[in-house]
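subagent[fold] <- orchestrator: predict structure for attached chain, return tokens only, no commentary.
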Amino acid sequence: DLDECAASPCKDHQYCLNTDGSFSCKACDASCVGCTGEGSEKCKTCASGYVKDDEKCTDIDECNLPEKVCTKENQDCVNTSGSYKCVCSEGFEDKDGTCVQT
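subagent[fold] -> orchestrator:
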């Protein structure tokens, strides 16, 4: 079997998996920018919103940072994979960028 992966035939956001007589390109984990294999522990560098923790790229919980990220009144932070979003608190709705009581 020829190791086609030695020639790095895959794109930057993929890793190469050598198979018998061929190869396939597999997508890197969402937490990675470039990778050497499957999973968040094989990242070359971590994607934005992720930090290297115990050799793995893990999500940063922006909602638990000391500095508040959702600063508008009656707004809650919701952590998402690699990011966060600001939503109006329960009983409030977004009216032109302001959370007003419903």
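orchestrator: received. Logging for downstream: The chain has two domains: 4-59, 62-93. DSSP finds no helices and ten strands in the chain.
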